[in-house]
Amino acid sequence: EVKKAGGIYYTPAYIVDYIVKNTVGRLLECHxxxxxxxxGNLKSNNRKSKxxxxxxxxxxxxxxxxxxxxxxxxGSFLLSAYTYLLNYHRDWYVENxxxxxxxxxxxxxxGQWFLTIAEKKQILLNNIFGVDIDSQAVEVxxxxxxxxx
Length: 149
Description:
Enzyme class: transferase
Keywords: Methyltransferase, Transferase
InterPro entries: MmeI_Mtase, N4_N6_ade-DNA_methylase, SAM-dependent_MTases_sf
Oligomer: single chain
EC number: 2.1.1.72
Catalytic activity: a 2'-deoxyadenosine in DNA + S-adenosyl-L-methionine = an N(6)-methyl-2'-deoxyadenosine in DNA + S-adenosyl-L-homocysteine + H(+)
Structural class: alpha+beta
Strand order of the largest sheet: 1-2
Distance between the termini: 35 Å
Number of strands: 6
Mean pLDDT: 83
């Protein structure tokens, strides 16, 4: 009854992951730069743009991406998108001279690379946004995102 009244719908994790892969993932893979004047943008259908290889996208370029869930509920989409961005950043730093990016990543005992807490926080504050009419759901989302940091 409460779900119906509030328009609450819980999206299964496999659907959320599919949506993130095919939205955020594609934006990161198809980042475009203007070639004949004008400003760069994230639209691959711009006739004045060229597709840039995924590995050439720096975290600075990715920082221009804003992800908004206008009805975030408990935050499953935002959590998945945030995880995707964290993995993207970590992989980029590791593939592009990890020693040079020691302020952004560190190596654990097993040799595995991790983003620093400061970098995770920066990505969260810069890229992830959500709103909802249910203030309790927003609090759940905020807590869940903070636990990922």
